[in-house]
Amino acid sequence: MTSAARRLLPELAVSAGTFVLLVVRAPTLEHFLVNSDHGYQLAAGAQLLDGRIPAIDSLHIYGPLVAVLAVATGGASGELVGEVLACAAAWALTIGLAFRLARRRFGAIAAWSSAILALLFLARFHKWYVWLIPIAALTCLDRATEDSRWWWRGGWVCGIGALLRPELGAASALVLFAFAVVDGARRDARSPLRARVLPLLVGFGLPLVVWMTALVVLAGARAPLRALAVTVESVVGSARHLTIPPPPFRPSAPFGKDSSHALALVLLPIVDVAALAAGGRAWRRRAPGLEDAGRCLAAIGVLGLAVYPHTIHRADLNHFWQGAWPLALALPGLCALAARAARRESDARRAASGRDLALAAGVLVAVCAVPLTRLAVEPHRDLAPLPRAPLAGLTDLVRGLEALPNDPNAELVRTLARLSGPDDEILVAAAAPQLPVFAQRPANGLCVMYQPGLFDSPAWRREHVAWLERHPPALVVGSEGLADSRFRRSQPEMWETLRARYTTVVARIGGLVVLAPAADPPRAAE
Asked: How many CB atoms lie within 10 A of CB 254?
């Protein structure tokens, strides 16, 4: 083993341990059948697999790379083992990078603390990219102090991020750009401004240019303009119409789940600001042994603040964990920086200032520990509980629907497959885009899932109705009488058309109905 490999052994151990833990606790098939959020991504991939191009004839709020990855892992065809292994590997890489960044700048104790906190704060299993992109961007930014080639790599990471979640990639790129400019303003900058900004912009633009070129080839010269309009609609519509207010702080139950959540949402930006202030101070003063650590900590704070609007606009607990990665890095980093400042300052006044910083960091960590511990003990929404037999979830995924003979959602999927042919399209007028994926049937409609405020302006609604007239579905899945208020509010014209034409109830399962055209009830497929 080479010396470089030996130096990376702790990182490899953390990544391998994370991968094994997540595979052992793989989400169960029952979870996949009801998880409309993960199902949304799989459904976007299934539409790509059916030949539909993201942003052209497949509308969803994520970037196109989400659909591409769902196809690459096999999840878009309902084969979940590859999807689970890919998500576990992505989280292993993410936490390994966080460990590496913390060990490089803050020391071994901070690194292990970051890895443990990351596992405790783990976001949604399928939303690994909301942590991986900013942490990878920070890694590139940190390495750029020694090698200017990392500016190009950082830009590329942000460009890939923009093809996953446009606002995430854009925020990360803006932070890297700001640090490229600030680095240039310092007298000891190792390269001129253009040597940092130009590679950063080229790296960021390269994935976007490749995607736009593919759109032109596949869908014509006007396709990039439509993709831009869809991106704006998805970002603005999500911000306006998918908002969830923060939970209230309840003085009668200050340590309850809601109160802890409310307090954590306030503490998150406070930690970001503290990281920016303490790190920026050490960086600006060029204190020996503290300068690079201060720059890294300041970058964590700035990027944490940049992505905080995404966390607070939909302030449920799942979105809090999606934005909690700065806590896993900044809290250990603050403590490490404060301890170093208290030990290394030779000047008495500065040493006292370092001790004050250490005391403040300790108080902040103690205050954060109370609500975060309360939230971290909540069962993870996606992962199977530890008491289950090892690999039980993965075993069920290998067996497929036969592992759930009595589950109503599995029965609904089996019914859809039985009542339709392989090429028959199914329109889901409910929050369950995963159903056609697991029935292995093509989904009908332009949208992966119909939601009020997204792609429901008069112009979009006309396009949806025109699609419905050209491609009438074989089956429609919805609530009784298609009374689902979200679908009705989003697409009133489609709702009226479907309610008039699809009046034959062929199944009632799990609170949903399967409808067929009035004059053409389906027969079981051979």
From this structure: 13
